[in-house]
Amino acid sequence: MNVTRGFTGRPSMDGPGLPPGQYDAGDAWPVLSAEVTPGIAPADWTFRVDGLVAEPGTWDWEQVGRLPQSEYAGDIHCVTGWSRFGTRFSGVSLDVFLDAVRPDAAATHAVAYAHTGYTANLPLADLTGGRAWIALAHDGEPLPAEHGGPARLLVPHLYFWKSAKWIAGLRILDHDEPGFWEQNGYHARGNPWQEQRYSGD
Amino acid sequence: MTETFVPPTRFAVPGRIAVAGQAAAAWQTATVAEIRRETPRAATFRLAVPAWAGHLPGQHLQLRLTAADGYTAQRHYSIASAPDASGHIEVTLDHVEGGEVSGWFHTAARPGDRVEVRGPVSGFFAWPGDRPALLIGAGSGVVPLMSMVRHHRRRRLTVPLRLLVSARSPRELIYAQEFGAETTPVFTRSAPPGTPVGRLAAAHLAPLTAEPPADGWEAYVCGSNAFAEHASRLLVAAGQPVDRIRIERFG
């Protein structure tokens, strides 16, 4: 252990709900997008799932609104170090979309892509089983543009860069393909509980 | 299916360099070599990191402090110094209210103290010194941009580089003594006599975007989210292509 002289920190922040190396951001919800925030009207927004699937599908805002809605209430974790407790999102489980398009047996991964061109890669297993959503609202309000509105991917059990803002689609693949941050040295999976921040972690 | 996935829209901001993953993964001891006050809120900490792998201007690092009971705190900070072979790097930190890492640096750190660093991290905001650079920062958002300015000077690069830097007042302008003709400061609360007070505006950008270099500008924006939103909207309105605007926001 490499002790820093005079540093005691705030052990109270090192709570059981906090993944290693994270701190509690309290009420703050920092915005860290790397690109210019796009102004996308709900009427112009679409979500597509294609690639290795039986039947590619595209949904517009109204169609997504008619799908069964569900909620995520829990924590989110950013690779820069902050975690936010007790967030509440609502939207549509990705299982609903994946059940409709029917991924091939050979499918293993997905690339999530945004209307800006931002991308993030994910194992398909992280997108199924009620652990991932297309989020349309936060705390009962429409998702603000700077937080990915009108709709973003939500995969809260992974670092939040995986939860692509302004989500445009998922391409289902039979291999892993690094997305935007992953090409910039970040971890392929990004599990906060294993502190998978950078490739090599 | 084996073809490479290509996003249907233009890739917003391709990374500028390939990144060596292994260098970023290893923690190294960094020894505080020197502390320089920059403003009432900000100070520069020069760190000796003998095995530093080198970096490009705009990259950042991860910094970790460890308490005697094993508790650790880590944060990401932009690198302020230009790349060189000195075995030293510099970070400039604001004293954040209640910040456990910046608080330690500002109240406890002294030369000889040891912390840990790893990096450099991320190629996204890097500027290799190749393309014309239009840099826009506010507050300590100037830090990664200063690494670019210093690199430009040290290497005597001829590629155009301009810096617009926003600060509340002259005494809160980090690196004030180092700026040259490449820099235009913008003061939002108080300014020297004869200098207007006000927010970064289209008029500050107009002379630069109206007559861009032949290859156009690569724009780098760094600051709070509110500043980044404002500055990036001004850039877009001035005709700067969105896929040539890189944004690094605090958080």
Automatic annotation (TrEMBL), chain A:
Give the start-end ranges of region Disordered.
1-21
Oxidoreductase molybdopterin-binding domain boundaries = 37-181
Annotated transmembrane regions: none
Instruction: State one Pfam family annotation.
Output: Oxidored_molyb
For this entry, the protein name equals Sulfite oxidase-like oxidoreductase
Source organism: Streptomyces tropicalis
From TrEMBL, chain B:
Cofactor (UniProt) = FAD
Tagged with keyword Iron-sulfur: yes
UniProt-listed CDD domains: FNR_iron_sulfur_binding_3
Cited InterPro entries: Cbr1-like_FAD-bd_dom, FAD-bd_FR_type, FNR_nucleotide-bd, MRET, Riboflavin_synthase-like_b-brl
Where would I find the FAD-binding FR-type domain in this sequence? 25-127
Q: Which UniProt keywords apply?
A: 2Fe-2S, Iron, Iron-sulfur, Metal-binding
The signal peptide stretch is none
Asked if the keyword Iron-sulfur belongs to this entry, the reply reads yes
Q: What is this protein called?
A: Ferredoxin reductase
